[in-house]
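Example record

One chain of 93 residues, shown exactly as stored in the release files.
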Amino acid sequence: MSPMLFHVGGDTLVWLHEVIGIFDVQTQEIADTRAFLERMRALGRVEVVDAGELKSLVVTDRKVYLSPVSPQTLRRRAELVEQTGRIEINHSE
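Predicted structure tokens for this chain:
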């Protein structure tokens, strides 16, 4: 199977096989998550993908993406890409 791209918001696509997890942005209130994000920021490995209220953290093996798209929507997109190999991009987010 060839690598598939996954739309995480804005104009940002990531390789689906690099996604480690999709989390609600509120998890950054947990001390361990906050420390992880601080380390990633210090390394320049945190990217805000689009303006708006941040709703999710997409952790990949290279970066953490902060997205205004809900974790539930991102999970559905990931499942759709895995099932069909097609990227669904909704510009009304």
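Notes: Helices lie at 31-42, 71-84.
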